Amino acid sequence: MKKIINILIISLTVILYASCTPEENDIFPESSANRIAAALKADKDILTSAKNGWLIEYYPSSSQAYGGFNLLALFTEDGKVTIAGDIANPDNTAISTYNLIQSAGPVLTFDTYNEILHFFSDPKNPSGIGTNGKGMEGDHEFLIMEASKDKVILQGRKTLNRIEMTPVAADLVWKDYIASIQELEEAASFGVYAYIVDKTVVSVSTNLRNLSMSYEEDGELKEIGVPYIVTPTGFKFYRTLDIGGVPVDELIYKESEKALVSPDGKAKLIFPPAILSGKWYMAYSQLGAYGKQCWDIVNAGNPDEDLYYVYLNEGSLTFGWNPRGTTSLYSGTLGLSSTFDDSHVTFSYNGVNAGNGNYYMANVEDFSYILYPFEQVTFTITMDDPEHPTKITLQDVDDPTNTIVLSNKVIYYPSEK
């Protein structure tokens, strides 16, 4: 009897507990499919809200090896997208389609070929940039990291690069904007620069829109790559550049200074002097006493040939010899490395020769003397016209007898006295 009573008590307790247990409410009243569809629609509404399109700061390659490029993109409700870019003619646009899908988050995909956008992801780049089979290794699918009507942040699914989109002003004319970028790049892009910050002079070379910088810090050689994108006003870096404790995010083009300058004026990317671009001819009569002495030795060591020309070409020394009594010409180039600031240039022989350069250095007696006026020498630069020089005077800062006057006019048989 006691067992029966105990069983009844336990059963009643269970029934009472069950009747008091609250019902679980569904936290997500909509299905996951509906939630995803709603999120993608919200992203599409944002993309199509910019009636004059979006400015996209696009970086191909996971290492940003080629720098960044400007794209303008107009998204429409019917899934079409119109794209322009600074790699194309300002008047050119390309129309293709886009889609929004769910794949570990909302993804914007350009799902049909667009000749401007896919320039960066085509395995066989139309301009031959990158290696065949890889091209520039850019993205055409992007994870949407955040989205608002003021800004959209994307992440390349392959490169993981940050891609920023901002709405284009209603009154901006696309072709004018692209043209302004291309015009600034034409004016401000060189093969070499000098970056000067807090008394540190950094040697800079370029690969498309990536600055390769070399400098010493605490006695150690530092080499860094600095990817950038061109804007209508200058260069904007992918990430903050910090040398000497001076952070820089962008540089503004200053035509009067022949440089790109940080907004606070603490850093400058100086354009190379005119002597490092084009051809600048030398002549015996335009050398100081030291240079004439060196040329006398060179000519004495090669009595059967006449110097036909000698000129600096993009910073290296190019020569031509004419065997006497013939119409033959033997030319070559002797490699010179250079560093510079806004009023000086320093040369040093690097041994990277071309043409008959190596032959003459190895086989013609005392030919190396032609390099002596330049070897490990710093010159002060003076130009007859700062804007359009026709003559450049180099004055050795340590030896007043080492003066070289160069001309942009061709000089044949420069050894004539």
From TrEMBL:
Superkingdom of source: Bacteria
Signal peptide: 1-18
InterPro entries for the chain: DUF4302 (IPR025396)
Pfam family, one: DUF4302
Organism (species): Bacteroides thetaiotaomicron
Keywords: Signal
Species lineage: Bacteria, Pseudomonadati, Bacteroidota, Bacteroidia, Bacteroidales
Entry protein name: DUF4302 domain-containing protein
